[in-house]
Amino acid sequence: MKAIVDCNSFYCSCERVFRPDLEQKPVVVLSNNDGCIIARSKEAKAIGIGMTGPYFKAKPLIEKYGVEAFSSNYNLYGDMSWRVMETLKTILGENKVEVYSVDEAFLDVHGFTSAQLQTLAKEIKNTIEKWTGVKVSIGIAPTKTLSKLANRISKKQDGITVLSDDNKIIHALQSTSVNDIWGIGHQYKEKLLNFGIYTAWDLRNLSEEWARKNLGGVVGIRLIKELNGQEAIVMDKDLTNKKMIATTRMFGNAVTDLADIKEAIATYTARAAEKLRRQQSAASIISAFVVPKENTTAPHFTHGPSISTYTILPQPTSLTNELIKPAMKMADQLFEAGKKYKKAGIVLSGLVPDSCIQANLFTPGRSIGRYLMEMIDNINFSMRDDMVKFASSGTKRNWKMRQAFHSPRYTTRWNELYEIS
DNA sequence: TCTGGGGTCCTAGGACCC
DNA sequence: TCTGGGGTCCTAGGACCC
Predict the structure, then answer these.
(1) What is the pLDDT of residue A128?
(2) What's the CATH code of the domain at A45?
(3) In a domain, A413, yes or no
(4) Is A152 part of a structural domain of the chain?
(5) What is the rounded distance in angstroms from the CA atom of residue A314 to the CA atom of residue A82?
């Protein structure tokens, strides 16, 4: 059996832990740049604020009902997430917990009776709420896909749903629309509806062959298996090392200057290189892209094409300066004078273990570079806020994003600690 | 006026090899 | 005049997730 533990309106819950006055009130959290709504409390959903809609469109509603809006505070959410995950590991043991996202974890819970699972779920739920202040919902079922379904149902009940026998599972499948299944997105939903497949139950009864043809090959087959109670999506014990690392941002305002673009790309490169070193990898490919701001009258928002290029590095590296150099060259290539840009980013791929630490006997110059990076990382980690930067990252930062409603980083900055008066 | 920022996995098809 | 068949590797792009 698999369980999934999911934090309710996670970002909103994090803000509320330190603002108990907002307990029963509508709260939303905005994306970077205060562009989109990315989390809504139950109360905010109830007054009709849509998911991932643009903030400006919801603004009338937000003002009318006095909804509390926060800019995203990833320092706070990251730390709260760590607390929740550590709590789970304390209860079940490290190797039973697979952290799936910032607010979700799968648990391996085989070998329990149905009644024991209920008790266990209650214990987990209560402990997390007590230790961290975050409320969670728990779904338990034979496979990951079914446990996600159980979790969905639990949100409408008391936060715990165990689908332990066939009757319960069948009933759950029959009362769930096909697009509410984990793994069915917008495209597949349309396709399935065209075939007259409306519920999870309809989908479960299709053949694997059909799924192979129509739902993305082996992905579709896995889905059908999972709905039928056969585990096809395995626990992944080691999600710590990424296969690619990206840092991309929308600009606060459209940018027209090459110098600004280069500052931004240098900053993103430095950030990505930091992530790279944290997992002790080196990158063999760096790509850069910019997204021009289009004058569109299209009714639906589209991201527009991005213009990109890449550089294959002479040897894999994790040194910021060795990554910034090609990044700057690519920025020169991508930039067109007279155009406005709204976004830029870099992606590091072809990641390999950073052998520089051992190989320094033959390339002594590089090991000095590695020590320098370690020092910079340590200083930036202890002092925070990028005390030490590369000159190309700039100091003006005309392109920086807007964040008008930022809450204090209560748990990760001494000078922003919660105060009781 | 204003619409995020990460990631993963998979497939098709081209390039290339013998 | 006639121009195979099988395999690998790589990339672009699609689909999904939170």
Answers:
(1) 97
(2) 3.30.70.270
(3) no
(4) no
(5) 37
